[in-house]
Amino acid sequence: MKRCDYAFPFRIDGVSGQGARTPSYEAHVEQMIRQVLLTTPGERVNRPLFGAGLRRLLFAPNAEPLNATAQMLVLQALTDALAEHIDVKEVKVHGAGEVDDEGQILIRIDYVIRQTRAPQHTEVLIP
């Protein structure tokens, strides 16, 4: 049975006039990861603890504590929100100075999708 998950951000499909769907479950999981990492706790009224709150780290000094803090926030947020979907294997953080734009953080997450046991990775740029 093929899954039909709605795309994020939500949009209307121009052909069918219905909510757009993701092309695969893997794409849906990647969208969920981005949604968790780019949301600040408190943004969602009914889920005040949802999100990682990584944007508050953008102006922190670029040092090893920044990377460790970001890794901890990512692991905690993904475990809280997506534990039934993924197993996080590794989180790598590239802070200011390691990315083209000084005011950005690049996060790479290596994970396994529980339903398919497929290893995946995704990179999220925090502007």
UniProtKB/TrEMBL annotation:
It comes from Polyangium sorediatum. This is GPW/gp25 family protein. Residues 24-117 form the IraD/Gp25-like domain. It comes from the Bacteria. It holds the Pfam family GPW_gp25.
